[in-house]
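$ run holo --ligand "S-adenosylmethionine" --emit tokens
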Amino acid sequence: MTDPLPPGLYIVATPIGNLGDLTPRAADVLSRASLIAAEDTRVTAKLLRHIGTETPMTPYHDHNADRVRPGLVARLGGEAIALVSDAGTPMISDPGFKLVRDARAAGHRIVTLPGPSAAIAALTLAGLPTDRFLFAGFLPPKEKARADALAELARLRASLVFYESGPRLGATLASMAAVLGQRDAAVAREISKAFEECVTGTLDELAARYAEHAPKGEIVIVVGPPGEAPPPEAGDIDAMLTDALSRLPIAKAAREVADATGIARHQLYERALELKGQA
Ligand code: SAM
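-- output --
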């Protein structure tokens, strides 16, 4: 008989592909917990079969979290409950932070079991600066909202990490090339699985490569910080302005390109007026 776990909430990272990446400690906690709160119990059932345990599960996902959270928090005083998502680290573009917040507010023990996360794994593959990075999760699917979100990030002196799906990869890389300018980037796909690959190039090169065919599988995009590539030439700036003007009013277009290139906004505003034939 193994000792029961002390009561509390156990945040358990699980593999993002290769089941061999489950840590021995994670397997131990999943086997000894009273209950596993799982994003999708069918997905986690496969993991539990792999480690040969039948710990009971309950669903905890975006659609039921508000309803079931108080009951879970109430049980934490006397039971060990593990939180898992379908893959990787809970709460990284996955549910869970409100459960931790409420468990903490109620004074319960909270333990984390670190392990795989696609964002960190992709950073280690990309060959881009890792001293400062920003995890930006999934971008909005609509073109304008996506370009606005990218423009907000454009001036950050940090590598940027995004989650993306195959069907949207080409459009997302094209937006990134237009808004962030010429930067080095990497597309990491199916990490730790049979068809793992990491393709590197400038954003333009990657946008061209994925424009026509949508790759299968799960994807992380890592974009290097600004200033890694030479500054854009006049023709490139006009192309960026023309693209921005097709979506935005003049002042906003100038600001978007200023954010992406570091060029003074008033200079770009003047040039945008010329391009619009309004100077
Ligand atoms: N919590 C997870 C983590 O820590 O990585 C992420 C969950 S998020 C809902 C799922 C996204 O993570 C996928 O759409 C993909 O962008 C990325 N992802 C997950 N597994 C991956 C893998 N094996 N290779 C590349 N990207 C992956």
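-- notes --
The chain has a mean pLDDT of 94.
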